[in-house]
Amino acid sequence: MSLFKARDWWSTTLGEKEEFDQGCLCVADVDNSGQDKIIVGSYMGYLRIFHPHPVKPGDDMQAEDLLLEVQLQEPILQVEVGKFVSGTEGLHLAVLHCRKLCVYAVSGTQGNVEHGNQYQIKLMYEHNLQRTACNMTYGPFGGVKGRDLICIQSMDGMLMLFEQESYAFGRFLPGFLLPGPLTYSSRTDSFITVSSCRQVESYKYQVLVFATDAEARQETVQQKRSSGKRLAVDWVLNIGEQALDICIVHFNQAVSSVFVLGERNLFCLKDNGQLRFMKKLDYSPSCFLPYCSVKEGTINTLVGNHSNVLNIYQDVTLKWAAQLPHVPVSVKVANIQNLKGVIVTLSENGHLQCSYLGTDPSFFQAPRIESKEVNYEEFNAEMKELQKIIREAMKTQDILPQSEKRRDLIVIAEVSPDLDAESKAIDSEVKAEVVPSVTVKVTVQSRVTAQKPNLSVCIQDPLAVTCDQFIFNDLEPDSSETVVLSVFLKGNFPPSELEGNCVVSCSTPTGIPKVAQCKFKLPLRLICFPAQPSKSANHKITIDTNKPPISFLTIFPDFADPSEDDQANVLGFQFLTGSKITLLASKTSQRYRIQSDQLEDLWLITKELTLRLEEHFKKQNCKDFACTFSGSIPLQEYFELIDRHFELRLNAEKFRELLSERAVQFRAIERRLLTRFKDKTPAPLQHLDTLLEGTFREVIALADAAEENQANMFQAFTKLKSATHLVIMLISLWQKLNADQIAIMEAAFLPLAEDTQELFHCPGCGNVDSIYQLINLLKLTAEWIISCHHHRVGKKLWILPFLPY
């Protein structure tokens, strides 16, 4: 702890429950008025500009200190000020969002009354990013004069360079894994970053210009060699730890240096990557800033840490330490109100402070202890009374507060114990004789007035419901609504989960939104039925227990036939899609074996077995029951499912590219035909109609193949998800993981409910509608052009009002 505090000159707290980080603070003359302003952006999308005035200690900031506050549509990752607009050398504000870069002009209007000036921002231009951004840097790349260029680093390692209003090029960093801090050195015209290999890397701007374009990354190796040079690093220095930030300093009294703040060390490098000096830190740093050189050959640096202390170093010598009221995530030095060297700090929860280094010591004086005799009997009586109060409080304490005992909005889902006597399955692709369905009764209860409640029933494919959306009339207080729906298997492959989710949303008359949800479990009989056990199978897993085996007649009464004694230890299941699973219980040991020809088919039966065993022993008041797994994890079969799914993803990308090429060819032929038709002098078509028809057939064939690949890819996705569930379950039984550890594994390895390009898996999902539209559109266009060829009247051509170009 420091002896001295940083003297508070001005401070404020930004918003409520907002989050800030390293790039959210900037100090510059953003309105070109000659005075520094403080620009702050938050992850909630708020952009604020301050011009502080001194206040007395303990007083709140003045209203006129906040020049501008505007909420943008997206989170703000970083704010910078520079010469970003062509045709002027005035300073402009660059705001980096996750998928967008915006450049604004900040201007003020002189106020006519005592309320002060009015400030506004004007969007000069914006760039929509194709990749998710991480951070950015700017400078006169290539030695340009009078303007600044911007370089954005994406989350997948691409450097996107923008020459003000236009996009220049993009380059991928070699060997990239995770993004690190990025800065630009105008002295060497190079970009400096810290890679995941924990080494500082420098890339020349000219090397980036002539390197292989990032858009050509998908080309073959031979094409890459002929289209550009490989991106080569200028110099590399291994620092052995991850970096928090990088700064380039150019001071008159000191040589140009590269400062790198690591997790435990502060490094100072020369322009060529050689180490000048390093300082080992005995604390965890949070931010830093090399700010001046007061002695020739030395550089002063501010370093904030997680102990709320701001340290000032001259090279490696500690010169001062000041206590801060918060942990700074960003620190700047500003000249405000003719006061030079104001230290501006920002915390992650929005505490913005302008301070300076003072000499008022902060002493803690321990209160004086009164010396008197200790009455132990009185202390024991008081201790027993307090313990009694604590015990009574623990008996009556609820998990939820009293106000949450009765929720205003409740949704309850009840699954019928029996299958529907008459199946409600609609448009099922299952090739079984009868596709069963089960009834789910959903009740929505409200204690308050609920306006237009909306009920959504979510079931993962290939399961489906007869109706998944319900909109009710307004509910009066203490009233309820009930709906009945049926769930059935629609796709011709087993699902990965037998669960559903009900979500109801509404709003009160005062505009307060209310949301409630509940989950329900579907019966195993919905997707499979009893079958003859199979003696041989390709895949087998064995579950060990610490209790004697239970008869299947007891734990599977809905599948086992009591009249057949052999089903006590052997039971067969068959999915509606045709695959069979056999369940065996050992007569001599405490083991159960599940076997099937497909690895993914083992998941649902294994899960059902463990759940029913736990439920059975719970009814017997047996608390020490446990399942374990001591066999080998079927990783080879699991990897085959991953390879199959990845292969289908690659096929989907190939089909997309081929469809794009044939569509371009189709439109080119259309334009040639239309030119011929408009010609006053009729000319032969030179087999253009034949070429159009052939291209049309190719587009139809590619669209059909892409649609088939899409269906196969979703089926492979479901199989992979079931196999992932199974592998996680086996690992949890093997290592005896608790519920929290299992949840961490599921969050890390399990894909989300939908297989989409933006998430983890297949690109191109959801393009089936687009394929159908493309087929119909090309078909109509081809028929129209051919009909025009046969129905030309004189020299006139009847042109339809719509032609897709």
TrEMBL record:
Residue ranges annotated for the PTHB1 platform domain, each copy included: 523-630
Q: Which UniProt keywords apply?
A: Coiled coil
Any one Pfam family here would be PTHB1_GAE
Q: Residue limits of the PTHB1 GAE domain?
A: 433-520
Coiled coil (UniProt feature): 369-396
User: Where does the PTHB1 N-terminal domain start and stop, copy by copy?
Assistant: 1-361
Which biological processes are named by the entry's GO terms? cilium assembly
Cellular component GO terms, alphabetical: BBSome; membrane
| PTHB1 hairpin domain residues | 632-735
| InterPro entries reported for this sequence | PHTB1_GAE_dom (IPR028074), PHTB1_N_dom (IPR028073), PTHB1 (IPR026511), PTHB1_hp_dom (IPR055363), PTHB1_pf_dom (IPR055362)
Q: What is this protein called?
A: Bardet-Biedl syndrome 9
